[in-house]
Amino acid sequence: MVAAPATNAPVHQSPAGGATLAIRNLHVNIDSREIIHGIDLTVNKGEVHAILGPNGSGKSTLAYALMGHPRYAVTSGEVELKGEDLLAMSADERSRNGLFLCFQYPTSIPGIQMGNFLRLAMKARFGDAAIKTFRKELTEKLRILKMDESYMRRYLNEGFSGGEKKKAEILQMALLKPEIAIMDETDSGLDVDAFKVVADGVNAMRGPDVGFVVITHYNRMLEYIKPDFVHVLIGGKIVKSGGPELALAVDQHGYQPILEELREQGVEIELMEEAGATYAREEPTEREHDPFRSHGLTGL
Amino acid sequence: MATDIEVTSKELAIHVDPNRERLLREAEKELPLEYSAGWSDPETYFFKSGRGVSRETVEMISRMKNEPAWMLDRRIKSYDHFLSRKMPSWGADLSEINFDEMYYYIKPASEQGKTWDDVPEDIKNTFDKLGIPEAERKFLAGVSAQYESEVVYHSLREDLEKLGVIFTDMDSGLREYPEIVKRYFGTVIPYKDNKFAALNTAVWSGGSFVYVPKGVHVAIPLQAYFRINAKNAGQFERTLIIADEGSYVHYIEGCTAPIWSEDSLHSAVVELIAMKDATIRYTTVQNWSNNVYNIVTKRAVAHENATVAWIDGNLGSKVTMKYPAVYLLGRGSKAEIVSAAFANQGQVQDAGGKVWHCAPETTSTITSKSVSKGNGRTSFRGWLKIYKGCVDSVSAMRCDAMLLDKECRSDTYPTIEVDEEKVALGHEATVSKIGEEELFYLMSRGLSEREAITQIVNGFIEPFTKTLPMEYAIELNRLIQMQMDGAVG
Q1: pTM here?
Q2: Interface residue B460 vs chain A (CB under 8 A)
Q3: CATH number of the domain within which A64 lies
Q4: Quick one: CA dihedral B50, B51, B57, B58, positive or negative?
Q5: B116, B163, B185, B438: least buried by Cβ within 10 Å?
């Protein structure tokens, strides 16, 4: 059952009547080269959508374009956030309207203390009132994420380990309470403990008030954060959508069967040259040594 | 040749209030975002000289102050030297300074106030608006307020006075402590040093005279505040600080002026003498309005195991030329020069620092952070000299420049002369722009573009800000935010 480009039918409608995030026929260029060739995707609050795809398929491009990075130019298509034109908003307006991007590589900024930064972000999103409860909320979230108070006096991501950076991203997400959260390869570069803390942090947030778009390179993340919908993104298009079973299929057989299916149907897919090798199943050696499996943590 | 040299000094660490962060935030909430010191008072002065400077002007100033003959003699020699010296041409463009248009001596009141109530109403209101009496009550050990050419008010906490600390205006210093002044005046910066030092020595008035006796720690800062009010005014204060053996003092100066279309000139001379084991910390937050030429000579000597720190923030003025310097004369002495400059539209901030290592085991750090915006221009001039025989000396020079616009400019002129081989030396310079990724990251968390840039700039100069007492850190952050709004006239 292959449909390209695929769309998922919304399961339930957001209270406003429309979807929380509605992407229609989105095309995105980087430096005048088209990377995303028309994506349709609808995400509602309460849903978790996983986007799986090999390296270079356009996953991060989609994330950055939705958040409004100036270098990622939307050439056609529409995106609505809670019924409003997302593409007309600047990145800060998108954030204040409830969109959040959990960065794969969070930027370090020297001289800005984490605590002060969080306070400014909270104020931007919720106004002065949020400052009153900030302290209490922060303490609670720090506890969930097993982060020490001393983080707050450190400079923003400066000298943070991979795990610390990701935790800091989840912390920001937890405080800013987005309505749509995009998580870009949040699982990459994490050790077992950090991974579990991050996954727990996300799961703690799950609920009817937030929709997730979980972008990931392979299935590991999805064993912890169970998706409602799974989409496979290859060559700048969503080539297949389905339920959790699709993630399992990709995990077991890689992307090759999907590509063959598409070829049989005569669907043209533009593959990234540099990513050619990654369409096969993830290297078995890596999987065998997956620390999560060896620790028996899988499926917690 | 960049090497990583970590130079730390316990003496330089200032007391950090555990509530600093919270207090900073609270204080930042309701502050105005424009050059809030730009008003002017009516000129109802006790005395105002005519325009221009002449031998008669110099004699008149000395006569009005009833000075000893040696000072008049020094003034006249300095005036002659001023005339004979060419305008320095190696730095900022000074060709528009018109020495004949300036007023060289303005005495705002007939005498100095013993309390704020003795100070003439307008002037008192001005210092009220600048928050000086409030600061005095809250966190200062002593205050000196100079208005035009004279100190109109000064105070020193009684307990410090009892310990023998002297903090007074330079004119009173000369009258009341003639031997000390005669012994040290002009020894660190002779009048022949440069054209502006000569001018200052010829027409100086006001400034501070500080003496801290042996072993006395003045734990909370002394502050001097300088205000120019009149159009075309010249302010030539003269400061001399002597920290006797094993003593500690932190002196802070701030300055503002009204926004006039005519230029004013501020040309001070500041001499510091740190005796054996003494520490002097000298902090400046310069916020002159953008019609002031700010050309200041600041220099210190550090004797055995003494420490001198110049903390120098330059945000205002039309042109600033200032290179705080330290002669490390005694074994084990230390110099720390930290400067931050912000050059907005039409401003030139030509700053830096100089250190001469003249003894073994001496340590110096020169750190500069500069930000340029609009067509503003920053220059860093660093001078480091290590003489033969100064073994085991350590020096690190670092200058970072940030450019916010296409038209702004930043130049770096480091000079390093080392005659001794057994030393450790580091030099590093960087130039950066506000990164797209940094900006995007902050904006993706809801900060507006302006807020995000302000945060990045504040973060960039944070190594400077953190050396300031909290009240001044607040002021500095606010001033930078103001620069971002382009609200400065």
Answers
A1: 0.81
A2: yes
A3: 3.40.50.300
A4: positive
A5: B163
